[in-house]
Amino acid sequence: MSGPRKSETFRRTLRGRGPSKLKLHLPKLKVGDIMTVAHSPVVTASLTTSIYDIVHIMTREGFRRIPIVDSGTGKLQGIVTSTDIVDYFGGGEKFHIVQQKFGGAFFKAINEPVKSILTANPPFVPRTATIADAIRVMKERKAGGLPIVNASSQVEAIITERDLLKIFKAKIALGTVSDLMTSSVITAPAEISILNAEKMMVEKSFRRLPLVDGEHVVGLVTAMDIVRFFGSGDVFSHLRSGTILQVLETPVIDVGVKQLVTTEPSTDLAKAAEVMTTQNIGSLLVIDEGKLKGILTERDFLKLVKEW
Known about the structure:
This protein has 13 helices and 13 strands. By secondary structure, it is α/β, with parallel strands linked by helices. The chain folds into two domains: 6-21 and 172-304, Roll (CBS-domain), CATH 3.10.580; 33-168, CBS-domain (Roll). The chain is flat and about 55 Å long.
């Protein structure tokens, strides 16, 4: 299958603007308040945990990232994300492991230890950190979540963009979706294969890809949709000779979301944040007069935080 048509693909860039009036009204934060909003205890895995098991944990729990720890000491060794899984199963450089080490054999590749694909030396914060510290690190490292460690470097909790959005939603000052959204969005034709969709997502470093039919948005696929596909029984029904390339030729619309949650450019930001937290989704497609005008994500809300 050919790649996305140029007429239907647009470069996604930040607007690079936003009225100075947009900000968050938050109380002064105290040392160590990170633990008041973080998830604890946190699900972790060891360096020898198989990619198969990681995929099933993500699928079962709905996690987009899992800290990897030393099985003996519990110290943080790395992190594996849904994007790492997409990379491994076709999206980027990690796919070479599947092709070269396993000859494309899916059933062998899924039993590879996660240490082969994890991100080493991931950003983290200590349990004594403030929420402000976490936001600063997330913005600087462009991380969607951070492990929280104790004085012995053992993982005690994790904080994510979604956790922050929950505390932001009631404290957002005046502003509309158009002030914060990314206005130029990369899209792909609905019939694109999983393989080509993965390549686009890894190359451009984003987790979401709107799917279009002409000028109309007909679906949305995320990195987690692809992880869930590989973690479900559906993937095995696509296997014939046992090679992963057969699986990756599946149209990505088959694993993406077709019932879209959308918003309009004029929607109040606080209302948009409420929708995202209520629906437990990480983004909203921004539609105006039937056309895609932008996308609003959890990470975009971090742009509101100027000073703490």
